[in-house]
Structure to design on (237 residues):
């Protein structure tokens, strides 16, 4: 087992220290680049992505392109499974994405290992390490590398949630009444004004008023925007 890194990443106090520990461990593992992404699923089909990486600047825009992520076979594997994937050019060619591999290989992304941890409450942690040469050919060594990465990822996701997740409530957030928050919460769940009123034991008009007041206080033009902003501010979970 690779020594060092597991407990150190847990001690990270901020984003810069966290990134430093990610890069240091990745290089000890024998890889050059690393990306760690905390994904927070919100209602209404929205997801928040918070990424820490050492991607080369020239490749940064392409690397962060969400449309590319939807087509990338490695990302799609991690989205659906928890088993690590060891990838190379054949992974992309097999899925008809050989041109994508050709582009990223120019920046050192020729082979790599990636995995995802899927946690409760719609949270996910993706981590991938990459390099410009083949992964170890010895099966025993490769198994060790994958095991070290899996163990490190467990520690890293704990630090990522502590450091990267937004505070539970933004101190500057507007003050909503308990009823307004409840009305927004049920609206987030897809309830109509009539259904919100039924759940809360109030009239439909009163439910509409609570949602309208919350929307106004949040500076939004409709209830859907209000729900998303309340999530972003930490008023809703």
């Amino acid at each position: 087992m690779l020594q060092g890194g597991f407990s150190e990443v847990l001690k990270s106090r901020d984003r810069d220290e966290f990134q430093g520990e990610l890069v240091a461990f990745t290089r000890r593992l024998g890889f050059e680049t690393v990306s760690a992404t905390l994904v927070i699923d919100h209602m209404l089909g929205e997801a928040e992505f918070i990424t820490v990486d050492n991607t080369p600047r020239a490749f940064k825009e392409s690397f962060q392109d969400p449309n590319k992520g939807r087509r990338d076979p490695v990302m799609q594997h991690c989205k659906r499974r928890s088993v690590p994937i060891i990838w190379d050019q054949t992974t992309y060619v097999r899925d008809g994405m050989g041109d994508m591999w050709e582009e990223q290989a120019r920046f050192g992304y020729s082979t790599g290992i990636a995995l995802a941890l899927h946690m409760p409450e719609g949270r996910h942690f993706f981590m991938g390490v990459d390099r410009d040469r083949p992964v170890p050919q010895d099966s025993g060594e490769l198994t060790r590398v994958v095991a070290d990465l899996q163990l490190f990822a467990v520690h890293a996701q704990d630090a990522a949630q502590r450091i990267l997740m937004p505070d539970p409530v933004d101190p500057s957030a507007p003050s909503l009444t308990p009823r307004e928050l409840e009305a927004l919460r049920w609206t987030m769940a897809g309830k109509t004004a009539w259904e919100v009123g039924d759940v809360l034991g109030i009239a439909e008009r009163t439910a509409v008023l609570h949602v309208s007041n919350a929307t106004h206080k949040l500076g939004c033009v409709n209830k859907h925007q209000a729900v998303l902003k309340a999530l972003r501010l930490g008023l809703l979970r």
Q: What stands out?
A: The mean pLDDT is 90. The CA atoms of residues 17 and 179 lie 41 Å apart. The chain is about 55% helix and 15% strand.
